[in-house]
What does this fold into?
Amino acid sequence: MKNRQYSLKVFETTIDNEEDFMSFFDTHQILFQDHLIVIKGRMSPTIKAYLEINNFHFINNFTLPIGRSRKALEEEFSLQKEGEKDHLEKEELFHSFNALQSEIDIKEKQLQASNKALKEEKIKNISIQKACQEKLEMLSNKATPSMTIIDNRIRSGQELNIEGDLLLLNRVNSGAVVKTTGSLIATQLIEGSIRCNGQLMMLSISPKANIVFHGVEVDNNLLKSQLNRIELKNREIHITQVTKKETNWA
It folds into this structure.
């Protein structure tokens, strides 16, 4: 049986001044390489880093038990350092987890905002479709048995003379002339001449058209991009945008 017995060299100290502490150990570095340095009281990160860089064996605020071998103390000291390392690793993981969670929260908020915008856009599109459907129903209601419906394009050089109301489902080319004694509804672009003596006209913007209502030429600048209602009220011509119900005077 082979046995060895070690004598434990312990140097216990406190830190009043960090510079004096490091200066002292710089001077006696060789002397304390085999010692276990026990530091009582607070040990700053600067001192801890200094001791680790210089390979000193140290513990902080540790009460040495009597009768323990150096090997047992070193093992306990090693376990203490491993515990500190595990604690630091856990803190780093905790901070990383919090950073990741914050990033996930931001992405979720962005996704919720995007979904909200898409939902609002969908509702808006549904409203537009409903308005268009109402316009089509309105136009369909106007198509009474006394109304003439023309779905062919009126080409340049053609002249139509219609008795009663007229519904145009196709465009009127430049150079074409359409006359009606009743009301007129046009769903497509008009570039030719319109002569209407009915109660009203409904048509969209027609920058090249020559529109005459009850003998009065209508200023195209008063027609907006959407559907316009042109009516004769109290011997005055009113132009109203169907969607906004906004009245202009010819």
Summary: Residues 246-250 have pLDDT under 50 and may be disordered. The CA atoms of residues 228 and 241 lie 5 Å apart. The chain has two domains: 10-87, 148-249.
